Amino acid sequence: MVRAGRVDKRIGTAMGRHQAREDFERFVDQSVNQLLRTAYLITWDLPSAEDLVQESLLRVARRWPKVRSMAYPTAYARRILINLALDGARRRTRHKIELEVGDRPALEEYPDQRAALALGTVEAAADLQRALGNLTRRQRATLVLRYFEDLPERQVAEILGCSIGTVKSTTWRALERLRAMASGPPAGGRSASFEPEAMSETKGRTL
Amino acid sequence: MKLDLEPQLRSALAARAATVPTGSGSRLRAVDYRPRTHRVPVRSAAATMAGAAAVGTAVAVLGGSQPAFAGWAAAPTQTVDAPSAGAAGDCAAQLAALPAPPNSTDSGPWSPVATDVRGPFTVVVYQDGTDTDFATCFSGPPFTFVSRSSIDASGGNGPVSGSSSGTASGLGGGQMTENEGAGGGDIPQWSLAHLNSTSQGPYTLVEGRIASGVTGVTLVRDDGQDVQATTENGWFIAWWPGNQGVTTAQVTTPAGVSDQSLSGSATPGGG
After folding, report:
1. Can you tell me the distance from the alpha carbon of B75 to that of B119, in angstroms, rounded to the nearest whole number?
2. How large is the ipTM?
3. Residue A145 Cα distances to A73, A79, A141, A176, angstroms
4. What is the pLDDT of residue B160?
């Protein structure tokens, strides 16, 4: 009887581990696209985004027995991803050079008013994309969580490890910068901007 | 052109997100992440307080059969109201010899406010009655390492005042780098230091302040192992052999357990 019990326990354990692995693969399948999109919007660079997602999933895998029992494992993975994205950015100063590629034709070259308006809309969207790329990673992460993931400020604050007030002020500053950059002078030639990564708000100490 | 920003922002983000190629997701799905399939047991504080044997973790052996930091445990191995006499004596002597950090005045006397014991190793946090100056003493066979820090009294976001450190018996210290941060919420201030003992090898020390009502802190290391911290008098202390970092803390309050991120900026330091 004892022997049969031991065999059953071994089989049960093997099945449990197999199930855990299957559950993880299902989790990756369901969450990888969303994580990748979020990572891409924060890093603005596809290879960096892929690296981030892979590292995040590796960390989730190490903690899978615990994460598996969480109500929202994807939210946990997203938090790890964002912490990694911001942690890496804080360790270096990033220089970004924005290239204005080509000349955009003046509106009066387009006699069709609707076409001109459509072009204006496309131009505005392109300006906004370029402006987003010029934000700091923390600003972009805040906007992504608020306007792409549609999370409330309280939850954004929890993920970023800061106060709701900081989320509000970061959002406001980022939007103001977007307004200023996106409605700047028309393109032509080359422009460059220097954008150091924002330092995290810290009260701390060093040894 | 006036920008109606928020709707356009949503569209711009969605448009950008839609450009992620499907191949990227496929590549990430194909990675073998080797998920852990069973929990690694961590001894609970209650069990250790009952006098159960500590769970040791074998780490890199340094020049002999005895693993480094032998006797270390992922949870505190006993509760103490004050450090042992031997540890206290070593620490007091070292603290007295330590100069004040830059932009800080000599202070004292030092009183222990939190003590963490894991096997033969003791970490004590001292305060001098102010909220700006504190010191840490790490002692164990065969070294004692002390450090002293001073926080910018304005509590602003700028650089902090500074620190000084020293070691006893010519052992310990070495290269040190530290991360610091404001976790906000239940952990308003914390620091992580990667240190190196010439006799025991690398180790990592994490300490910080906790909000009132916090009854437990468990740090989740980068390699997935949980390390239970000592929480006492508004402080938490944990340490482990090796250089693993930590990005998350599980904080226990009467309301339950919640995760708090610990992300901060790195500061190179000297030993």
Report:
1. 10
2. 0.72
3. 17, 11, 6, 17
4. 32
